[in-house]
Amino acid sequence: MWKFTVRRSLIMIPQLIVLSILIFVLAQLMPGDALSGQVGPDVDPERLEEIREEMGWNDPWHEQYARWMGGVLKGDFGESFRFKMPVTELIEERIANTFWLSVVTLILTYIIAIPLGITSGRYNDTWKDQLITGYTYVGFATPLFIFALVMLWLFGYKLGWFPTSGSVTPGVSPGTFEYFMSKLYHLLLPALSMALITTFSTIQYLRNEIVDTKQKDFILTARAKGASESRVYNRHILRNSLLPIAAFFGFEITGLIGGSIFVENIFGYPGMGQLLVESITLRDYTVLTATTLLFGVASILGALISDIILSLVDPRIRIK
Amino acid sequence: MENNQTKTDEVKPKAPMKSPSGISIIWRELVRDKVALLSLIFLVLIVVFVYGVSLILDQEEIVKVDLFSIHEPPSDEFLLGTDYGGRDIFGQLIIGTRNSLSIGILVTIMTGLIGIAYGLIAGYFGGHIDNIMMRILDFFLILPFTMIVIAFVAIVPKYSVLTFSLIMTAFLWMGIARLIRSKALQEKELDYIQASKTLGSSNFKIIFTQLLPNCSSLIIVTMTLNLAANIGLESGLSFLGFGFPESTPSLGTLLSYATNPQTLEFRWWIWVPASILILLLMLSINNVGQALKRATDARQRRG
């Protein structure tokens, strides 16, 4: 067990290095820099060149990379040119917002997926199953951003049940119960939109697992010993079918990152996905490299978590 | 021993029966599955209509700004109203569907070519080659697609439809490569490959004239399903503003007007038709893909 975990974690190191170089080189290749947009009659181009020299932007790329990486390891992502504040400070609140959005989305995804998957697997090929399979089918074909737009239009504008932008009502002081409720209220609609669409794969997977497990010999044994139907399902089948679902937990993270970019932009939710798009439009490279790096690290960690859970569940993977 | 002999004699058919050809199996499956058949008819109609009409329509004419007819609701002159630049939505919808379909097909073919070649080589040779190739693939698979494509789109200096599809291709070939590789791993152990090797066929010949045709059903199904996904991805990226530029309308650029709350709330004619069209396109391509998938697996066939 430990051997596998250590070996799997070691693979992560070259992945992280390649990722950080890739992101850094990408940012270097982008046309223009944060200063090139500020050329005007009252700005002296020579002064701009001086600033560039001072900031070390004219140094060879590997020196800049080493400097950047050194800072990142100490938790310092540099200074944002557009927001005029340290990037670490800027993303602190954003990360918290995106984190809570992801947590609520995951909870909702499992709340929807587990009962539906169980019903669909237990009563397979009945009208209930067909209804649920139909839902997963449409969910599979619907792009997240269209669904999110429709949800925003319906519940945000037409019915007015939910706020249409922001992450908290202005003027509410942090730490109070009211503040917490306001936060939850703001992220409920984006999270629900994301969960309703991304849940289809979990439902389908759980259904197929249950249909498979149902026909195994140990279930026959349990029935032969006189276990009640609910006991067979809740104790024997469910326990065996839920483990693989747990293993996919890590991979959900990569999906959430892609989703949060769309959902945060549509719902005007100030998180990392919105910051990523903003930083590209504004050519704010320090912010851009920080957000992409953090997103990349999150998905690498997600894959690691999944592999470790999988190895716990399925010993064959460990031996390989 | 005696028994076995008589058994095989009995099973042997008197006259060799011709097994149905691949196309006739697919056709039977489609006719049986009414939804898939309707989807196919719908797709053919859309493709013929969109490509036919866009021969007459002039893209330059449609994307020209007309300040006298901004945000007009649907009328006789503008079937589906106009956008904030006074441009006809109906015309944009047709050109946009054509552009979205074209890039979807282009990306699907390019990812298919790369993925098939990569998967076949990794699966056929196995061992160290497979190991190294799979580690590279794993790395690509980990990268969050939307994020990395947005970053690439922002750095390309001469941005065009071609570079956009190349960027998408660069980060989308892994899925099909992995499928083909596992199929090739199974397939290469079979007798016909071993026999061909013994007869002295070159690896190149075995891979492309013997292994490839035997993976064709998997390839057709995967590429059909990928087409639907790629159309969705393109419209998603265009929606965020990192796909097609506004001068080249696509279904995604039409939807991106809905980021303006006024448009989302009051001007349904701009974004609703495009959303419905994307949904219908993706659903029907998926339906056809699922029917193809069943046709390739004898246990699941309905026809």
UniProtKB/TrEMBL annotation, chain A:
Domain of life: Bacteria
Keyword terms: Cell membrane, Membrane, Transmembrane, Transmembrane helix, Transport
Pfam family, one: BPD_transp_1_N
Membrane topology classification: Multi-pass membrane protein
UniProt keyword annotation of Glycosyltransferase present: no
Homology family: Belongs to the binding-protein-dependent transport system permease family.
UniProt protein name: Oligopeptide ABC transporter permease
Native source species: Ornithinibacillus xuwenensis
UniProtKB/TrEMBL annotation, chain B:
InterPro entries in alphabetical order: BP-dependent_transpt_permease, MetI-like, MetI-like_sf, OppC_N
Main location: membrane
Membrane topology: Multi-pass membrane protein
Keyword Membrane: yes
Keywords recorded for this protein, A-Z: Cell membrane, Membrane, Transmembrane, Transmembrane helix, Transport
Family matches, as PANTHER family: D,D-DIPEPTIDE TRANSPORT SYSTEM PERMEASE PROTEIN DDPC-RELATED (PTHR43386:SF1), OLIGOPEPTIDE TRANSPORT SYSTEM PERMEASE PROTEIN APPC (PTHR43386)
Record protein name field: ABC transporter permease
Organism: Ornithinibacillus xuwenensis
